[in-house]
Design a protein that fits this description.
The chain has ten helices and 19 strands. The protein is α/β, with parallel strands linked by helices. Helix 2 links the parallel strand 3 and strand 4.
Length: 342
């Protein structure tokens, strides 16, 4: 039996999102965050299907229609949710002997920080509502969030020790047992552990998708802080040293592409927010990149373009998203080719 966790840049059927609603933590900023979600979905539907979980499908459809989303590529499901972080409660799709299988890992609100009872059921409810046709769904007795792992589609998985070894995720498992679980379920034969790196204001315990991203041709796009006075300077410098020490399956160093560092971003109470350009989403023919009305935005778009030549690089203003300590990749989960029903 062969197991493979597809890379994000492989062909997709669609992207899963969960629409924000007034019973979520988005209530104070709901109108402006709905605009961000609508813009993301509008861009996705230029290239592929948007699978959208919403509390009020009719209202959501009206907003998407108004912004010009291609509604023939929008599939709405009325399913209750706690929040909108589809990256972490959505299905993780593997290929088993070449055929897709959906893995439904447990989601416990990033180590019991937030309510997650509804979110933890979304994948199974989508399955029962026919979103995935005859593709098998397997529930896995392990807490694992999609934002905590990066795959190159060929057996390499990049992750962080801070997240996967967190005592409120899987306290019954040691590092070796977690590695075996990743190998046996995801086909992760080449594991790269980051021991350093974090973003202030991040609730996820250093999800790798905020820090470093695997890209085609043995490339890693990563966050680098050039301001020696910034609290991130030392931990991100140490993370960069780790990345330089990593080797591919063939024993070669990775091509490393550093992202620019945005200005510090704060909420109304003075809490620093985790604005990061690493939280981009790769889709068919394009890459959606978060921007923050920052002087570094254009450089960030150009940098991502270096890793994904030939794709359209599209900036999305994600300032509203970081108010809840996440960004563009966090609110999306790609669905690989062969999963969605026509």
């Amino acid at each position: 039996m062969t197991l493979r966790l597809p890379a994000e840049w492989e062909e997709q059927d669609g992207v899963l999102l969960a629409w924000p609603h007034e019973e979520s933590d988005w209530l104070p900023w709901l109108p402006m965050v709905e605009i961000v979600f609508a813009q993301i979905i509008k861009e996705i539907t230029r290239f592929e299907t948007a699978l959208v979980v919403a509390a009020d499908a009719e209202r959501t459809a009206a907003i998407l229609t108004a912004v010009g989303a291609r509604m023939e590529r929008v599939r709405l499901f009325e399913i209750p949710s706690n929040d909108t972080w589809a990256r972490d409660f959505g299905p993780i799709t593997i290929k088993r002997d070449g055929a897709p299988v959906l893995l439904d890992y447990g989601f416990n609100g990033w180590g019991l920080k937030f309510a997650s009872d509804r979110d933890n059921l979304i994948t199974r409810r989508l399955f029962h509502d026919g979103a995935f046709g005859g593709i098998p769904l397997e529930t896995v007795g392990l807490i694992l969030e999609g934002g905590s792992i990066e795959s190159d589609g060929e057996g390499t998985v990049l992750t962080t020790a801070e997240c996967l070894l967190h005592p409120n995720r899987n306290p019954h498992l040691c590092r070796g047992e977690i590695e075996e679980a990743l190998r046996s379920r995801l086909g992760a034969g080449h594991l790269l552990w980051l021991e350093n790196g974090y973003l202030a204001g991040d609730d996820t315990d250093s999800h790798v998708d905020t820090l470093a991203r695997l890209a085609p041709d043995d490339t890693i796009v990563y966050v680098r802080c050039d301001d020696a006075a910034d609290e991130h300077y030392t931990p991100l410098f140490l993370m960069e040293k780790e990345l330089k020490s990593f080797r591919t399956r063939e024993g070669k160093p990775y091509r490393l592409i550093p992202l620019p560092w945005p200005r510090a971003c704060f909420d109304e109470e003075g809490t620093r927010l985790p604005a990061t350009y690493a939280n981009f989403l790769v889709i068919n023919g394009a890459v959606l990149v978060p921007t923050y009305d920052d002087p570094a935005d254009e450089a960030a778009l150009a940098t991502v373009g270096q890793a994904y030549p030939g794709r359209e690089i599209i900036g999305i203003d994600c300032r509203p998203l970081v108010l809840q300590h996440g960004s563009l990749h966090c609110v999306t989960m790609q669905i690989p080719k062969g999963v969605l029903t026509p």
